[in-house]
TrEMBL record:
Organism of provenance: Macrostomum lignano
Domain of life from the UniProt record: Eukaryota
Pfam families listed in its UniProt record: DUF229 (PF02995)
Gene3D superfamilies hit by this protein: Alkaline Phosphatase, subunit A
SUPFAM superfamilies the UniProt entry points to: Alkaline phosphatase-like
Protein name: DUF229 domain-containing protein
Record's GO cellular component terms: extracellular space
Coiled coil: none
Length: 365
């Protein structure tokens, strides 16, 4: 429905938020999907529907959709569409805006989106081992790549498979690229580093709060702002140079001392660990929330410090802007979308400046 929504914004630029005439826009999408399922009831099909207008700026507006979503789920069950279909209900992230995003809960919600999977009874009866494994994996660390592998695996349940033929596999595919189906075992010891989740997005690390008054962490704050300005340097005729204002929060992380000192098992049964290894951590991670001026921007960023050389590094693409920038980057137009969170146009409207100072608005990454 992408062409439909693009044309909708073009034809009705001043329509009421969340509506198309007198009808909620999410209901338009639900009705479209119901028609699709009814028309192709006896055909194999795959449908993906994504709605964000009500919740993208503020979760407050999402509750009016609850009753309609419940009615749709009941329709799927009562019309027996779920008798031979797998239903996946998911989000791409949780609440990540304004004051909520500034809390510990907000940090976790941004990184831990909801994922729910409903299987038809006949599939559960035909594949009890896979069903049991899916339930077991609900408390495992997974990525969208695993969900993709799961959907490919699920397709095999509904499609007769030809007899296996011996064929040399000349294609090299890493486990990270392929993902792991949730219908198969996933280790409870799986960690972010093993599956390519950067530290900034990892919810499994044991972060410890540090004092924002420390000289070292302030130095890191200045380093971060310097990286921001390097991104907008070529557009200084439009974007103001940002300055470091203050540290709002800072956490530190280093590899566990027990992991570093573990050498081997001291007994044959592996029950008594030998912690005599003298390995030292080669790096330290800092997760900072800083404020910059003149845009009063709040940013969350993870910085890695090489302990031996004290050299700092960061991934500019993993920076989170946790308060709204609204029209601050309006001078860029539709160009350079990756700079909008960092660019504060030299010419700002007075209304926008007042809104920024009051802290109003939603966060945009």
């Amino acid at each position: 429905m992408r062409p439909f929504y693009l044309k909708l914004d073009e034809l009705y630029p001043h329509r009421k938020y969340g509506c198309l005439g007198s009808k909620p826009l999410h209901q338009v999408k639900i009705d479209w999907q119901k028609d699709f399922l009814d028309v192709y009831r006896n055909r194999k099909k795959f449908t993906f529907v994504f709605h964000s207008e009500l919740s993208h700026e503020d979760n407050y507006y999402l509750s009016p959709m609850d009753a309609d979503l419940l009615a749709y789920l009941r329709y799927l069950k009562e019309s027996k569409h779920l008798d031979d279909s797998i239903l996946i209900l998911m989000s791409d992230h949780g609440h990540r805006y304004a004051k909520t995003r500034s809390t510990l809960q907000g940090k976790y919600e941004e990184r831990l989106p909801f994922l729910g999977i409903a299987l038809p009874k006949r599939l559960k009866d035909a594949h009890p081992i896979e069903t049991k494994q899916l339930i077991k994996n609900q408390n495992r660390l997974i990525t969208p790549l695993d969900l993709h592998a799961t959907m490919r695996h699920a397709a095999e349940f509904f499609t007769p498979q030809p007899p296996p033929q011996h064929q040399e596999n000349t294609k090299t595919t890493s486990k990270r690229e392929a993902g792991v189906s949730l219908f198969t075992p996933i280790s409870e010891k799986r960690n972010c580093a093993q599956i390519g989740i950067e530290a900034h997005w990892c919810a499994c690390l044991a972060w410890q709060s540090l004092s924002p008054l420390g000289t070292n962490v302030k130095t890191i704050g200045y380093y971060v702002v310097a990286q921001f300005n390097a991104q907008t340097e070529k557009h200084r005729d439009q974007c103001a140079e940002l300055t470091f204002s203050k540290l709002l929060a800072v956490d530190g992380y280093a590899p566990s001392t027990k992991i570093l000192s573990f050498k081997a098992s001291a007994d044959a049964d592996g029950r008594n660990p030998d912690f005599s290894d003298t390995m030292s951590a080669g790096y330290r991670l800092y997760r900072l929330t800083i404020e910059t001026l003149p845009n009063h921007g709040h940013y969350e960023v993870t910085v890695q410090e090489d302990i031996a050389s004290h050299r700092l590094s960061m991934d500019i693409n993993s920076v989170s802007r946790v308060n709204a920038y609204r029209q601050q980057a309006a001078c860029l137009g539709d160009k350079l979308p990756h700079l909008r969170a960092l660019c504060y146009c030299l010419h700002q409207k007075s209304e926008e400046q007042k809104a920024v100072k009051s802290g109003s608005g939603a966060s945009i990454k």
